Amino acid sequence: xxxxxxxxxxxxxxxADAQIVSHRLMLRAGxxxxxxAGIYAWLPIGLRVLKxxxxxxxxxxxxAGAVELLMPTLQSADLWRQSGRYDxxxxxxxxxxxRHDRDMLYGPTNEEMIxxxxxxxxxxxxxxxxxxxxxxxxxxxxxxPRFGVxxxxxxxxxxxxxxxxxxxxxxxxxxxMFVAYLRTFARLGLTAVPVKAPTGPIGGDLSxxxxxxxxxxxxxxxxxxxxxxxxxDELLAADASTIARLTGLYAMEEEEHARIADCPVPAERxxxxxxxxxxxxxxxxxxxxxxxxxxxxxxxxxxxxPQMGSYGIGVSRLVGAIVEASHxxxxxxxxxxxxxxxxxxxxxxxxxxxxxxxxxxxxxxxxDAGVATLYDxxxxxxxxxxxxxxxxxxxxxxxxxxxxxxRGTVELKRRATGERDxxxxxxxxxxxxx
Length: 434
Ligand code: ATP
Ligand code: MG
Description:
Helix content is 34%, strand content 28%. It is α+β, with helices and mostly antiparallel strands. The chain has 2 domains: 3-332, 2-Layer Sandwich (BirA Bifunctional Protein, domain 2), CATH 3.30.930; 343-433, Anticodon-binding domain (Rossmann fold, 3-Layer(aba) Sandwich), CATH 3.40.50.800. The strands form 6 sheets. Strands 3, 7, 8, 9, 10, 11, 12, 13 and 16 form a 9-stranded mixed beta sheet that branches. Adenosine-5'-triphosphate binds at residues 109, 140, 142, 151-152, 155, 157, 277-280, 312, 314, 316-317.
């Protein structure tokens, strides 16, 4: 992508109304613009990050055996009357009336819709187990939308729903999703702490939230320091024993922690940190299947309500969480897995024919090799170009200037460490296309 043709409105000044670093950097680096309270337009470079995250989430859902579909954002109130949640949901639900005076709503979540869809086609034990998911915009009219995409009103969520014949099946689906979550967050370069969540009136012990540790997180956590020792490789290879080990380690939100008389963790191992909730998994049994009349026939000919669970990931919130976890004084430092482009190619002198022809050739070769490259071909000062590249945080910067070219070299800078190497064009290309 040529920067001269791109839409990347970067800002040098710190936006006055942004309180946390990820919100400031996302505005400054031209990822998002607010269009109404808690509602954002995703600008081109922000959209690329959002899509990359969405893709990692999708791959891990698919790997766990979940099946993607797409449900609409607008839902009929009647659906929610069937579960009894239309009146119970409260002012977070955005209610809309259409021209025929029918009550509609912008979906805050999809338990009702998926239960109705499944009810209308699943008949017997052969239709189970199933895990269905979609990645779709949600709307919650939050009292206090804040911190940019962290707590928006319109936000992108992956929500999966599982249907099983019995509790053992539900437990297996829950574990498959748990593993998918550990792998997803590890692939995104994040350390996520699974925290046991209260299950409310339904009871049971199957609900966990996944939190990214960050000082700006909205949740206060208490956990066993041993959680921090779990390695990325271990998370990527996660199985039932990893879950057993992780869930065996103490981790609670403050409110729950305060209720526990004897904390099982010795004081020297108890950590207190803030966290950003990026995922929530929840086994709720027959709550919706019973309320909405979803039943299937068992092998023995009996009718039973499937055991269900739901599994959310805040895809748009993750963009903010990753920036919160990965930045420095100069800007964002994207992990490779979600970077909007892999390489930022800087032409230091567009008015110098030999520099420009070398830069153009490198750009062509990177593009041919399928390396996502943002090419700064604008007529700007070198200093401004470097500042922009650092701000937008691509993993690699490749700098082409007159002095280097005289010696036949270009400079390759790694954004995360600031390390610079002077290399021949061929070896720089070999490294970036490897
Ligand atoms: P929170 O406690 O942060 O309001 P929640 O418990 O209401 O979250 P869930 O209903 O479990 O959230 O939704 C699943 C995921 O969707 C959450 O883990 C979070 O990552 C994301 N999410 C929820 N509300 C928002 C929001 N207002 N803006 C962005 N992401 C959100
Ligand atoms: Mg909420």
